[in-house]
Amino acid sequence: MASAIAIDELDPNSQLLRNFDDAWRADLALIRQITLQEMQEEEDRILAARLAGITLDAIPDDVRNMAMLLHDSDNESNHEDEPKTVSNKSNVPNIGITYKQQKKTKCALCMDYTIKTDPRVPCNHKYCISCLQELFMKSMQDETLMPPRCCQKQIPIDLARLTSKQIENFNAKQLEYSTKDRLYCSQPTCSTFIPPKLIVNGIGTCPKPGCGVTTCSICKAASHGKFDCPKDEATAAVLDTAHKAGWKRCYQCRAMVELNHGCFHMTCRCHAEFCYVCAIPWKNCKCPQWDEENLYREARVRTARIPAHQRTQTNNGIDLNEAIQRMANQLRANHECRHTNGWAYTRGGGRCEECGHFLPQYLFRCYQCHFMACNRCRRNRL
């Protein structure tokens, strides 16, 4: 402290520069807040006009990019540690002040400040090491997070700095999740995944020490030698229930899938894409892409998110039914949205359409299809 005071006394301009830096940061925070608010209002105005049949010029890319940059800098401020030098203009020779600006980068998930050694993922977002490790751990339990990714770009495992045992477990899970028509041990108390290399002549051997039970790869029950597969009453009951409920079975991992909303283009948690009508791989059939009842149900939900005054107080004075019809038409056009046009921060909270979790304070809305997602899903799932 004494040395810092002495230096400031030698160079009174140093304190002035520090004050200027603090004022600049305060102004930047205010500019960021105003810009993001105006961006949200402009997006709402364009959406309301679109529902009314009015064509407006889209927000210029440079403005949108600046707003998104400010949004990210608010959540993940990318202020790197750059040395700042205040030159000495006093009569004392060869004295200068060199200091480092405090790091202001925030983690893309928890929004806590990161440190210099924390990893930056391929999409250029910064993660604190604990959040990145948690993502890799969760991906071993939740298939929708495998492979770990951010902004649709896969994250190299070496960035997570896992232990050798964790890497071994991760590689095993990655193999399991990427295997088509998986086979699990038929012993109910085991159910260990049987890798393809342990399946010989249609019979898989459980790799778990102390188990070693053999399983038929056709009927998934205990192996039965060369005899035909016996009737599996439990599986038959599940398939009967699925048929009555209208569920479909993924052709790749054989998991049951239920359509809650959206088009018939299904993406399973194993990442296989197929038609919900005929259950064959996507774009290999001529089935319709939409169920009209589901389409209009989804259109009503998304229209309800638009403030009433924006939905009805337009130049054309459209009513609720017309707004729903326009939204249905937009959903038909954007039913395969990849959410690459960015996300709008939306206050008020709600339920994430991807994972189903309720967030009380905010969600993110896709600029193109109005899909609502939590931060975890928009970063690591979609």
From TrEMBL:
<dbReference type="GO" id="GO:0008270">
    <property type="term" value="F:zinc ion binding"/>
</dbReference>
<keyword id="KW-0808">Transferase</keyword>
<dbReference type="GO" id="GO:0061630">
    <property type="term" value="F:ubiquitin protein ligase activity"/>
</dbReference>
<keyword id="KW-0677">Repeat</keyword>
<dbReference type="InterPro" id="IPR044066">
    <property type="entry name" value="TRIAD_supradom"/>
</dbReference>
<keyword id="KW-0479">Metal-binding</keyword>
<dbReference type="InterPro" id="IPR002867">
    <property type="entry name" value="IBR_dom"/>
</dbReference>
<keyword id="KW-0833">Ubl conjugation pathway</keyword>
<dbReference type="Pfam" id="PF01485">
    <property type="entry name" value="IBR"/>
</dbReference>
<feature type="domain" description="RING-type">
    <location>
        <begin position="103"/>
        <end position="291"/>
    </location>
</feature>
<dbReference type="GO" id="GO:0016567">
    <property type="term" value="P:protein ubiquitination"/>
</dbReference>
<protein>
    <recommendedName>
        <fullName>RBR-type E3 ubiquitin transferase</fullName>
        <ecNumber>2.3.2.31</ecNumber>
    </recommendedName>
</protein>
<keyword id="KW-0863">Zinc-finger</keyword>
<keyword id="KW-0862">Zinc</keyword>
<dbReference type="InterPro" id="IPR031127">
    <property type="entry name" value="E3_UB_ligase_RBR"/>
</dbReference>
<dbReference type="InterPro" id="IPR017907">
    <property type="entry name" value="Znf_RING_CS"/>
</dbReference>
